[in-house]
Amino acid sequence: MKIVCLEEPGDLPDYPEHLCVCEGKAEVKLVERLMKQILAQGGGNGKSAAEAPDRGQKNEHEERKFVIVCAGGVDKIRPLLKRLRTRPNAKGLKSITIVADADDKVKGRRAEIWKALGVDDDVASKIAPDEVLVVHGVQCAVWLSPDNESNGRIEDMVMKTLESRIINCVEEVWERARSIRADLGARSSLSSKAKVAVWLALVENQGIGLPTAFEKGLVDLSHPVFEPLRVLLGAQIDP
User: How far apart are the first and last CA of the chain?
Assistant: First the structure.
């Protein structure tokens, strides 16, 4: 199975077998890393890359694809899903997985996404966090960070992977800058996004973002916080 990452939804290729729509670039990189681990362990075809038989060159329509597409913001997921449902090239699609932040409205966001996938309004609000549904012949699943049940975002997942001494250091740096932030009229609260930004500045000594952190392997993906999402992705390609 080939993993294809797209920064623009308009570039979606024909006949993807599995599609993952991500809120932003950080989610794209996280899903890509997790999928590489899943495929390396034999997911997607039941065999590892070393054990899989060589079937020779396949044309584009025959090759199995797991396409990860960046929606470019949570507000763009719903219109993208509605557009995908009417695309003629969606006929080969077997699964759709949505990966986004819950922010401060996990239940409402889940219902919004399920409705965009084609589920009736009265059903969408009652779907459980770990529920997988077949909608118009396509197996669909929704993941909302940090844990598919609580309010929060992908940065909350990352913070849980760090040692307490590192978290204390990040919070101390932020606290020491309190007066400067006040002079600048900045927010006084310390969000998980800000914590991750401070941590990355301490680790890399430069302003890299979370997508680059995932790409460079700075985030410990073996941490249990990522296991539920890993399991969900694996189940989507091996129903």
Answer: 15
Q: What CA dihedral angle connects 50, 51, 54 and 60, to 10 degrees?
A: -80
Q: Are 68 and 23 in contact (CB under 8 A)?
A: no
The closest of 236, 216, 233, 211 to 30, measured between CA atoms, is 211
pTM assigned to the model: 0.87
Burial classification of residue 38, based on how many CB atoms lie within 10 Å of its CB (0-12 exposed, 13-18 middle, 19 or more buried): buried
Q: How far is 190 from 229, CA to CA, in rounded Å? A: 26
Residues 159-197 pLDDT 10s: 999 999 999 999 898 888 777 767 777 666 778 998 999
Alpha helices (runs of H) in the chain, residue ranges in sequence order = 25-40, 77-84, 106-116, 121-124, 154-160, 164-176, 178-184, 192-204, 210-215, 227-237
pLDDT for 119-168, tens place per residue?
Answer: 999 999 999 999 999 998 889 999 999 999 999 999 999 999 999 999 99
| 146 in Cβ contact with 102 (< 8 Å) | yes
Mean pLDDT score across all residues of the chain: 86
CA-to-CA distance for 6 and 9, rounded, in angstroms? 7
Look up residue 205 and give its two tokens.
């000594």
| Nearest alpha carbon to residue 9 among 83, 112, 117 | 83
Question: Which residues have C-beta within 8 Å of that of residue 111, sequence separation ≥ 6?
Answer: 124, 125, 127
- Our CA dihedral for 164, 224, 146, 167, rounded to 10 degrees, sits at 10
Query: Strands 2-6 and 65-70, how do they pair?
Result: parallel
Give the gyration radius of the chain's Cα atoms. Answer: 19
User: How confident is the model over 102-129, as a mean pLDDT?
Assistant: 94
